[in-house]
Task: inverse folding
């Protein structure tokens, strides 16, 4: 059974489902790192712990020739606490690796990963460039997970692991859900706009009748008091105010007459 890098990466992601797991993780900025200095981990698992964090790096090999030609992956140890080579079952022997680097086998029939040789844990200073790369570039929502590049994605597509019908149904369902969500948001906005306009009209009427809410109790209490007042009470209050004004005018007139006589 032919094993692809995608198969192994997917199994690693399942193994680290409780951790942060990334594929094709670079050691720094693509534009600011010289070509020969760039390191790319096929897989990186980060254990979310303040007291005992662990960065575990993975180099995936699916052919014997690729393993024998590649000597650069030995330098990846400086980026991680533990480094493992992951390959199809039996392709690499543990004696072919340095003591510090671990070895894992992938079993395609069971779709499982087992540790053949445990990597040595090393305390390291975590690379700021690696961390910034993860923050700046790997939080992008449009990245295709588990694929090193689009070519690998389309190879899996052509192999029949994703059909056009499945993709169409997935996209169609997502568009329908998004359209329903946007229509509901629009309905809520229109309702809010209507209530807001009604509120403004009510406040204009309240201000027109001199209800400002600066007294104790606020606008609601003053409005309730105004609406609860009986018409007869209003007339009586107006009459009482007029009588006080007439009385005052009469006193003022009497005072002027007295001054004129003297």
Result:
């Amino acid at each position: 059974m032919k094993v692809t890098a995608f198969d192994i990466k997917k199994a690693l992601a399942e193994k680290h489902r409780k951790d942060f797991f990334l594929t094709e993780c670079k050691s720094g900025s693509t534009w600011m790192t010289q070509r020969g200095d760039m390191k790319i981990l096929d897989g990186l698992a980060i254990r979310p712990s303040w007291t005992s964090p662990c960065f575990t790096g993975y180099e995936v090999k699916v052919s014997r020739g690729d393993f024998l030609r590649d000597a650069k992956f030995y330098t990846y140890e400086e980026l991680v606490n533990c480094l493992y080579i992951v390959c199809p079952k039996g392709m690499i022997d543990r004696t072919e690796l340095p003591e510090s680097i671990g070895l894992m086998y992938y079993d395609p029939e069971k779709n499982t990963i087992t540790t053949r040789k445990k990597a040595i844990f090393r305390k390291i200073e975590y690379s700021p460039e690696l961390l910034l790369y993860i923050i700046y570039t790997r939080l992008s929502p449009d990245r295709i997970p588990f694929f090193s590049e689009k070519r690998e994605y389309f190879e899996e597509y052509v192999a029949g692991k994703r059909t056009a019908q499945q993709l169409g149904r997935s996209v169609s369902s997502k568009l329908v859900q998004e359209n329903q969500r946007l229509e509901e948001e629009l309905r809520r906005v229109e309702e809010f706009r209507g209530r807001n306009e009604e509120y403004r009209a009510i406040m204009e009427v309240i201000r027109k009748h001199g209800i400002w809410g600066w007294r104790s109790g606020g606008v609601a209490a003053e409005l309730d008091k105004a609406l609860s007042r009986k018409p007869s009470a209003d007339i009586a209050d107006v009459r009482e105010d007029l009588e006080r004004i007439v009385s005052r005018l009469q006193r003022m007139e009497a005072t002027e007459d007295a001054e004129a006589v003297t």
In short: Residues 236 and 242 are 10 Å apart (CA to CA).
